[in-house]
Amino acid sequence: MKALSRRDFLKVTGSALIGVTTGGVSLQALAKEQLPLDNPSAKALKYTHQSDKEGQTCANCMHIQGDAGNEWRPCALFPNHLVNNNGWCAGWVKQP
């Protein structure tokens, strides 16, 4: 068995590190689920999937993240959960 040169070792470990990092990000994205209404944080902030406040929805809140084309998006107030663009919670703040 041939010993790895230092250069080859760095190439292999660097590639493995990049693969693990991007793979972890992909798994994190897949792990997100829609925010259930019985979630303690959702209850505390009175989250609802359908806003009854005129002009106030998750889609125009400063806490919303992700692609605007998606119906369900990540929110800074509810880590590892997705909120509905048409939703609302007491943490709503108008986007600047």
Automatic annotation (TrEMBL):
One of the protein's GO biological processes: aerobic electron transport chain
Pfam families in the cross-refs: HIPIP
Gene Ontology molecular function: 4 iron, 4 sulfur cluster binding; electron transfer activity; metal ion binding
Stored InterPro entries: High_potential_FeS_prot, HIPIP_sf, TAT_signal, TAT_signal_bac_arc
UniProt key word 4Fe-4S: yes
Keywords: 4Fe-4S, Electron transport, Iron, Iron-sulfur, Metal-binding, Signal, Transport
Keyword Iron annotated: yes
Domain High potential iron-sulfur proteins family profile residue range list: 29-96
Function: Specific class of high-redox-potential 4Fe-4S ferredoxins. Functions in anaerobic electron transport in most purple and in some other photosynthetic bacteria and in at least one genus (Paracoccus) of halophilic, denitrifying bacteria.
UniProt cross-references to NCBIfam families, sorted A to Z: TAT_signal_seq
Protein's UniProt name: High-potential iron-sulfur protein isozyme
Lineage of source species: Bacteria, Pseudomonadati, Pseudomonadota, Gammaproteobacteria, Alteromonadales
